[in-house]
Write a structure and sequence with these properties.
The complex is a heterodimer of chains A (about 240) and B (about 300). Chain A is about 80% helix and about 0% strand. Chain A has about 240 residues and is mostly helical. Chain A has one domain (about 5-230). The relative contact order of chain A is 0.13. Chain B folds into two domains: about 1-205, 3-Layer(aba) Sandwich (Rossmann fold); about 215-290, 2-Layer Sandwich (Alpha-Beta Plaits). The radius of gyration of chain B is 21 Å and the shape is globular. Chain B is α/β, with parallel strands linked by helices. The chains are: A mainly alpha (about 240), B alpha/beta (about 300). The interface of A and B includes residues 5, 19 and 80 of A. Chain B: It comes from Prauserella sediminis.
Chain lengths: ~240, ~300
């Protein structure tokens, strides 16, 4: 698995880059426009110095997740059909995802700057420069925006390859298993009276660690799971 | 020289043996026909020798190595299959561009000419392409890739007779200039009979015929005439098929009996299609007789 080989396979995944990389951005722009229109219409009188916050930024993260589900359900079988190995394909997908996360991180950072410069799009609207994501320097700010992209993109890859191998049933089983795990954890926390510690953890964890550190760690685990699941996958 | 070899290869799905203890070779610079009924195990065999599936047991070697996850080997192998799906976000051009990046011997001029000839609309979304146009995407990739081992698995579903002939013509012409190992897996045996140099027939996961076309053709004949004379002629040889009408009989014998009386008989050569079909039926009947079927063969499989 040489880097040249990875770059070659990454180029196959991006042979229609306009769709793969452009679609999430297009959705983001449309969602921004929709929010501007909505906030113009309702004209909430927000108290001076406080912006109206919208959670619409999550749209680009969701669309990116969906495109990477398709990376495994559609691009993967095609690539294997033209003699690409599973290892090279998953490696190249990782390369694309890391690059994409960083580029999107920079774009969102630029949008946050624009938002500040235009007085919240002229409406005191906060879609990019969200208070709980603020960092003091450019590099950590971009990483905070990029971290969730890594997490969700690799989650998309894994869900995609699970669907490709075991169909809807596989995805249901996976989803229910994760749900059960979550419920189990919550029961454990409740029975041990740990809720206060959990709240403190979320309140006290630095933004960088919360939005870049931990997501990257989980993304790495998901990447390993994707690779393991792809080993016996048939195009 | 053998470039691909399968030795005692079995692929089991649950209780079914899709491929059952199969051994055969593909020879360098030769056109092979891999023939058999629906569900006989052809596609499974091809998926194993392109590393897409792993055999349950046995050994697969391509250029002396295991093809599974072997990028070096796979870059020299091109497998075109009827069931190939393309990403929804692709237009036809994207599929060709992707193939051009993967296959080291890709000939863009040749691909362009084929696009012209097959009238493939490069800017159409793959979802909008007809069955025949999708097939031509595969055929163009398979030809222009010039991979040392190229496999075509029913590559021309939906292609009209003219397009199929164009495919054969290009295949032969390009093969003459750039010899390589080619496998054609198809039901249209008559159409490829003159092209294939080596025939491998697989039935119910087992090899029932594996020889050069020349040998096969010289070994089998159809004999017709009075029943008694025909029976004398074919005595001690394998009768693959027999038809009786009144006092007359027609048999397809394999292993041509020599030095026997043919005065009252009509002896004709056998077409490859006839030979393959009759051999498969013979094999099926033998299996049914011994109750040895693996449950995979379906009586309804069609040759069409």
């Amino acid at each position: 698995m040489t880097l040249t080989q990875l770059v070659k396979v990454a180029r196959i995944q991006l042979v229609n880059a306009r769709m793969v990389l452009g679609m999430p951005l297009l959705v983001l722009v449309c969602v921004l426009a929709a929010n501007i229109v909505i906030f113009m219409a309702i004209q909430t009188p927000s108290p001076p110095g406080e912006s109206a916050i919208t959670g619409a930024l999550i749209s680009i993260y969701i669309v990116t997740l969906v495109t990477h589900v398709q990376t495994m359900t559609q691009m993967f079988p095609f690539a294997l059909g033209i003699s690409v190995t599973r290892r090279d394909f998953v490696g190249a997908a990782g390369l694309v995802i890391v690059g994409q996360a960083l580029v999107y991180g920079v774009i969102i950072w630029v949008m946050a700057l624009l938002e500040g410069a235009t007085g919240g799009w002229g409406l005191d609207l906060a879609m990019f420069d969200l208070p709980f994501l603020q960092e003091s320097n450019v590099v950590t700010q971009v990483l905070v925006y990029a971290g969730p992209f890594l997490l969700l993109s690799f989650a998309g890859l894994w869900a995609g390859i699970v669907f490709h191998r075991w169909g809807q049933l596989g995805v249901w089983v996976l989803g229910l298993a994760l749900g059960a795990l979550l419920v189990g954890l919550m029961a454990l926390v409740g029975s041990q009276g740990w809720w206060q510690q959990v709240f403190d953890f979320f309140a006290e964890t630095p933004t960088l660690l919360m939005f870049a550190g931990y997501p990257t760690l989980i993304a790495a685990i998901l990447a390993a799971a994707t690779y393991a699941t792809s080993r016996r996958a048939v195009p | 020289m053998s470039v691909v070899s399968l030795r005692g290869v079995t692929k089991r799905y649950g209780d079914t043996r899709a491929v059952d203890d199969v051994s055969f070779d593909l020879h360098e610079n030769r056109i092979h026909g891999l023939l058999g009924r629906n569900g006989a195990g052809k596609s499974t065999a091809m998926r194993m020798l392109t590393g897409q599936e792993v055999p349950t047991s046995g050994q697969v070697r391509v250029f002396g190595e295991n093809p599974y996850e072997n990028a070096d080997v796979l870059s020299r192998v091109c497998f075109i299959k009827e069931s190939q799906r393309y990403p929804d976000i692709f237009v036809a051009r994207h599929a060709l561009e992707a193939a051009a990046m993967v296959f080291p011997n890709w000939d863009q001029d040749f691909a362009d000419r084929l696009v012209e000839e097959f009238r493939l609309p490069l800017k159409s979304r793959v979802r909008k392409l007809s069955r025949g146009q999708l097939s031509s995407v595969g055929v163009i990739i398979g030809l222009a890739a010039r991979a040392p081992v190229t496999l075509f698995d029913e590559p021309y579903l939906g292609l009209d007779a003219v397009a199929r002939q164009a495919f054969y013509d290009h295949l032969i012409a390009d093969y003459a200039e750039h010899p390589r190992t080619i496998v054609l897996s198809t039901h249209l045996i008559d159409e490829v009979a003159d092209i294939i140099e080596h025939v491998t027939v697989i039935d119910r996961g087992r090899i029932v015929m594996d020889d050069s076309s020349e040998n096969l053709r010289s070994q089998a004949v159809t004999v017709s005439g009075p029943t008694k004379a025909v029976e004398q002629f074919s005595d001690g040889h394998e009768v693959l098929h027999r038809e009786d009408l009144g006092g007359f009989t027609r048999v397809l014998v394999s292993g041509v009996p020599t030095g026997r009386d043919t005065a009252s008989l009509q002896v004709e050569p056998v077409s490859l299609q006839q030979l393959v079909v009759r051999t498969t039926q013979f094999h099926d009947a033998a299996l049914a007789g011994s109750g040895n079927g693996n449950g995979k063969g379906n009586g309804k499989g069609a040759w069409s």
